[in-house]
Specification:
The complex is a heterodimer of chains A (about 325) and B (about 400). Chain A has about 325 residues and is mainly alpha-helical. Chain A has helices at about 1-5, 20-35, 40-60, 70-85, 95-115, 120-140, 165-190, 190-200, 205-210, 215-240, 250-265, 270-285, 290-305, 310-320, and strands spanning about 155-160, 160-165. Chain A has a two-stranded antiparallel ribbon with strand order 1-2. The chains are: A mainly alpha (about 325), B alpha/beta (about 400). The interface between A and B is medium-sized, with 24 and 28 residues.
Chain lengths: ~325, ~400
Amino acid sequence: MAQITEQADIRPLNGFGLWSEQIAFMALVAFLIVAPTFIYPVLLMKALCFALFACAFNLLIGYVGLLSFGHALFFGWSAYACAHAAKVWGFPPELAILTGTATAAVLGLVAGSIAIRRQGIYFAMITLALAQMMFFFALQAPFTGGEDGIQAVPRGVLFGLFDLSDQMTIYVFVVVLFLACFLLIYRIIYSPFGEVLKAIRENEQRAISLGYKTDRYKLMAFVLSATLAGVAGSTKALVFQLASLTDVHWTMSGEVVLMTLLGGLGTVFGPAVGAFIIVAMQNYLAGFGQWVTIIQGAIFVVCVLLFRRGIVGVIAHALRIRL
Amino acid sequence: MKRLSTIAFVAALAAGPAYAQFSDGVVKIGVMNDMAGTYADLAGPGSVIAARMAVEDFGAEKKGMKVEIVSADHQNKPDVGSNVVRTWFDVDKVDVVVDVPTSSVALAVNEIAREKNKVFLISGAASSDLTGAKCSPNSVHWTYDTWSLANGTGNAIVKTGGDTWFFLTADYAFGHALERDTAAVVEKNGGKVVGRVRHPFPATDFSSFLLQAQASKAKIIGLANAGADTTNAIKQAAEFGVVAGGQNLAGLLVFLTDVHGLGLKTAQGLIFTEAWYWDMNDANRAFAKKFAAANKGIHPSMVHAGVYSSVIHYLKALEALKSDADGTKVVAQMKKMPTDDKLFGKGSIRQDGRKLHPMYLFEVKKPSESKYPWDYYKVRATIPADQAFRPMSEGKCPLVKG
């Protein structure tokens, strides 16, 4: 994993990031402000949810070097929990999202404490197995509605003030939530905690010999990643007013890997870019029906063969900047 | 919005003053179904052809109405389907969504159509909840539903001695509804349900489920699934010697295209209920001939016929209203007018959105009885329109008062 995720340079923190990152962040914010005038807001919100999901996933694979193949577990179950809280218990959206996020955090703690005991392929297989177990549970449990999912989830009124059934209100809400989580992830990556994570990624034995309890750091990173994936899943449930099996299916775990790899593993902006590209492809190529998955597969192969750093990784490397 | 209505006005002037009220000057019909998966043959591209034929036969162009048809694949996933329909309503200005097999997707579309006040004409989906607890002032359930299938097939089989049942059920809304409705009919007629097993949807391997069904010793194995699931189950049941062992299969939802796929040798003797068959009268045969020519020789299923018939009635309602802007009003108009078209004949739409017409109990012919291609069914019984569907009082539809 080390050769893929090598960093151009790691400079000391000033709290605001490097100029390249600041510019990229401003560009992202500007894009999100202008975009709804020419792109369908629901599509943008979908892309943002997946972008957050991919960023959360990247926290684990990009900075700790752990490939989880069961992240749909957190994404999907937080969606169910959020939808159930909003629809059946009548929670307002902020509490519903909190419920979903907390569910993902608990699941992350359980799954993480089992999975981090192993490395590499075994780690991936354990996460996949746990996710599949919970998929089956979602299929059979009465409250998830089986193949129907939980439908007609009310979007509700945020903090009792903002009516989210209005398209632009919920868009602003999703953008703010995304940016907040994005900055949080950035803060985690470049905190002393994040530096330890990167040390574990580069050489775990050495980190242990330096006195770090690596298992604790890995578990913490796993739970953080699961929790942030939970924010994404809960938000998606509110945006689409639907929580369904698609979100817990293993293909969702695969899709997030694809998004992260395509955008650039171990880059801050890469996963978001990858998510936007994949969501846009699924939307604009929908006319090809099931060929979309084949096109996606081909792109994945090309990406891995030709530019292993991912799109953002390649740009950052060429310009010798950090993104 | 203002600019939009100006465009609509200009377009309407070009089209003829009678239709000044059509939103953006065009009536846009969205056909959404499974284009490549389990239900592609019984609905799929054929439904788009049926909708196009309806627009032609209605003579939209001559009447100065501009009608456009768009289509999409929902891959049998509610999230894909609701995404498409939201985009259709918000961006593409689609006025009406038709077909939508797979009840879980239909239920999702049902909610969105209600929220956006558009029209939803259901032909492919089966769940009787669509005119029951989940009924909507924006939807009409056209072709068939789980209650009518269960009623037709369940009654007929229990009365001829098939009094113990085991259900093989597709594990989603439609399967559950079909199982529930059939079990009720079986028990009402003095039969007994001895067991049930739910299989994932879609499934390819039915062996463990069929073994359970065999072990149950039930006389009848009810297949509460559809499309490729039903045909796979029937084929594998033949391999397991289920029928040879003295048990009988009851396909609760079998389409013409399924029988075609199975072949008469495997399918012969199967009894089931449908709303429409192409070889019943001259009008149907003429429709089927034209349809098959456009659809690679595949003859129309009842879903295709339902799409045709519902689109015709929708366009008639628009003609009477001279507007497509308000979905609730259009559906109210559709309920007010009696239905009449060449495929389903005269009928009506009930307050809860249920379209009424006779249902038929068919039996699949033996290979020796079939005289020409697609000659598959013989009519065992006709269930008159007033008995074919669930009485409105039992549906618990909130739209029905009193």
